[in-house]
Design goal:
The chain is an alpha/beta fold and about 220 residues long. It has 6 helices and 12 strands. The chain has 2 domains: about 35-105, Ubiquitin-like (UB roll) (Roll), CATH 3.10.20.310; about 105-220, Rossmann fold (3-Layer(aba) Sandwich). The protein has helices at about 15-35, 50-55, 70-80, 140-150, 155, 200-205, and strands at about 40-45, 85-95, 95-105, 105-110, 115-120, 125, 130-135, 160-165, 175-180, 185-190, 210-215, 220. A 9-stranded mixed beta sheet has the order 6-5-4-7-8-9-10-11-12. A 3-stranded mixed beta sheet has the order 1-3-2, with helices on one face. A hairpin with a 4-residue loop joins β5 (about 115-120) and β6. It starts with 12 loop residues before the first helix and ends with a strand. The model has no long low-confidence stretch (mean pLDDT about 85).
């Protein structure tokens, strides 16, 4: 009986070289991409911190590797700060990162507690150019007052100097505001959003000084 001769499989050198080339190209590509750094950083929505401060807080000041920098990591780092409510990071390109910040803004300095109150009710000891609430606001009014303050355009908030809780027989949610321009304003909790039109209202009275009544109606009493 004739013996079967086993044929040796010849190694195809050409195919091996192709595999090695592709593998080497992949390694070099990964090494190159890993070494690509973030060099275009854009920060939006910030006012309390400068762009560079946000970049430093996010751990990006040394222009780190793009692939090694996770968006979720950047968001987590920034959201640990008391003055940052939320962060959304987008990556339009390999070397570009856009950081959209929603700040936890200081609304007022609450004199009875000697604390600055932020949008989310956090109390801090830092000082800011915000209105001073000069007297105690009852708990059943305070929460709604905080919401009402949060609803105002922040540029208007910065125009308020002092806020006094000033209820009357008609409305326990009544407040008396002293503005930085010398005018004064009466308003109630459900009328706070009218302050967004403050500048337009004042212009109607030729920028004269007086008291603006927004608690009942909308009229201006010029100071004599």
């Amino acid at each position: 009986m004739a013996r079967k001769v086993k044929k040796k499989r010849k190694l195809k050198v050409k195919n091996l070289l192709i595999v090695l080339f592709v593998f080497t190209a992949i390694l070099l590509g990964v090494a190159f991409l890993t070494d690509v750094k973030l060099n275009n950083m854009i920060v939006k929505g910030n006012s309390l911190y400068s762009d560079w401060e946000i970049i430093e807080m996010a751990g990006l000041s040394n222009y780190p590797s793009s692939l090694k920098t996770l968006s979720s990591t950047v968001e987590k780092r920034l959201e640990e700060d008391d003055y940052i409510k939320s962060v959304k990071v987008s990556r339009p390109s390999l070397t570009k990162i856009v950081i959209n910040v929603e700040e936890n803004l200081p609304l007022f300095y609450y004199l009875p507690e000697n604390k600055t109150i932020l949008t989310d009710k956090t109390e801090v000891t830092d000082n800011f150019s915000v209105p001073t609430v000069i007297n105690y606001v009852p708990d059943n009014v305070y929460s709604d007052f905080l919401k009402s303050m949060s609803s105002i355009n922040y540029d208007i908030i910065k125009r308020i100097s002092e806020i006094k809780y000033d209820p009357n027989e008609v409305d326990e949610g009544r407040f008396f505001l002293t503005m930085n321009d010398g005018n004064q304003v009466y308003l109630t909790l459900n009328k706070f959003t009218k302050l967004d039109n403050y500048l337009d209202i004042i212009k109607e009275f030729d920028n004269k000084k007086g008291i603006l009544y927004l608690d009942s109606g909308e009229y201006f009493e010029v100071k004599s």
